[in-house]
Amino acid sequence: MTENKYLSSWIQEMAAMTKPDKVVWIDGSEKQTQELRDQACSTGELIKLNQEILPGCYLHRTAVNDVARVEARTFICTRTKEDCGNVNNWIEPGECYRRLTRLFTGSMQGRTMYVIPYSMGIVGSEFAKYGIELTDSIYVVLNMLIMTRVGNDVIEALGDSGDFIKGLHSKADLDENNRYICHFPEDNTIWSVNSGYGGNVLLGKKCFALRIASYLGRKEGWMAEHMLILGVQYPDGTVKYVTGAFPSACGKTNLAMIIPPERFRKLGYKCWCVGDDIAWLRVGEDGRLWAVNPENGFFGVAPGTNEKSNPNALHTCMKDTIFTNVCHDLSDNTVWWEGLNSDPPANAENWRGEPWDYRKYDKTDKVGTSGAHPNSRFTAKSKNCPCLSPEFDNPKGVPISAIIFGGRRAKTAPLVYQSTSWQNGTFVGSIMASETTAAAAGAVGVVRRDPMAMRPFVGYDMGDYFRHWLDMGKVIKNPPKIFHVNWFRTDDDGNFIWPGFGDNFRVLLWILARCEGKVDADLTPIGYVPKPSDIDIGGLDSVSSDTLRDLLSVDNASWLADIENIKEFYSFIGDRVPSELTDELSGLEKRLGE
Ligand code: GTP
Ligand code: SPV
Ligand code: MN
User: For the chain, is the Cβ count within 10 Å smaller at the N or the C terminus?
Assistant: First the structure.
């Protein structure tokens, strides 16, 4: 099927180990894709949904113990432990290959091995990178067909080169005690076994486009980041682009598809989505930072998505979509999730496939009682997004004016603030913290430090990663300005104070005005904070000017309390944390104490 000798000998070797009954090449054609969907429906792997209401849509349920990324089972297998760093899990590569070889041996017996040639980025473009994923899961094939650019043209573009990422995945027996998501950055290799869930198995996404790509980016002088890319169009037609790094399930997809409040729409503002999860960033000939979204689809969080919070996402997933672990409405064979509307289906099956009684829903036990799993997802085509940027297919990407970091912080972080320089902005990213969410296995709602929203996704030592950010700052002549936002501040009863979603546009306007030098700000110990009168809250009844003042306030005491935790985190990362950042930390501590 291929004349590329690197490719054919690797596939032979992997097939000799996993022993599939047959090997099938995925060509990206609609005919083959439909045959696979039909086959998956015949075995129950997919459920065909109501094709009149949801054309091209299917439902999939994962195993009950396999519903999120598993960070504890994710490994970066560099030759030396130092290159992996303390934040990542490490297994010596030889030992890891041996351990996983035992698990992969014969794991595809009685199954088909699918060969998926895919591209991250536009096939044939300067910045595209290619991968081959071998998998025994039709669900993985169908998701990769949406999330990446798949087909024979990838094989053609690859030619006789050995420069591709070798991904091997087997569901094996979904044994969670032997689940491994392993990366070998020095070998361009990813091995994933005993899972069938999203980020663990769609190897183009977090495994390649972040973990392996961040490693390559450092080597080659570019950056792979957990960032959305968004264009803001002004009434005069100019478009400014921003990227945003928020931890998993902290609002990237929502911000990426934002619709400005009506008042701004009437004035002629409009927003465009370039990407919702991953950005590859390079320095352009003009000395600015340019961003490309290497993906071709969205693997978005379903719960909370509705006509009001994110109409663009809702419309995107009304056709050609695979839903994973949502609630199945049996009355009309459609889907439902918490936060879709206030009308839960009476005749339904929950994400586990059991009869579901919405009256027993208990907010304190979402996993146990909800219709949809809190980390249930839709896999939908970028092309179906109503606000997809006209630049989506531009292989050069888009020039970035601002980088926005953010997280879920009930207290401490103000609605928005601006760093004072690239170095200070790198520091702001490095001390990011957020309450954990259902996107990864483990406790939810615990504050943890998550630098640049990349804690689970850096393919090498975190200190070296900070150094790479600082180094990049030296070669970007006109660097983006760096900001931090927090949409999640709560009152004493735990309610969000800021309305969020579309109203976040008001903060974006301040951010872009700062980039253009068009608006003043107050310098505080943490950076520049807006003067309350400069955030346009016109038409926003739920936010009084007092509330806004509160949202923008910097409480020195709670920041000082955070300093100890940051110091502990820096020392956990180890001695590769650049001295520029420890200096920034001392500077912050000193300013807070004055
Ligand atoms: P990953 O796909 O896991 O990387 O997540 P993401 O960063 O794309 O998060 P997403 O946009 O899917 O949002 C996750 C959850 O946060 C959803 O339940 C949203 O409804 C909620 N959310 C998003 N934006 C806001 C906001 O501005 N305010 C509030 N209160 N909630 C928000
Ligand atoms: C995330 O967890 O950040 C996601 C979903 O985007 S996954 O693809 O599972 O990583
Ligand atoms: Mn993500």
Answer: C
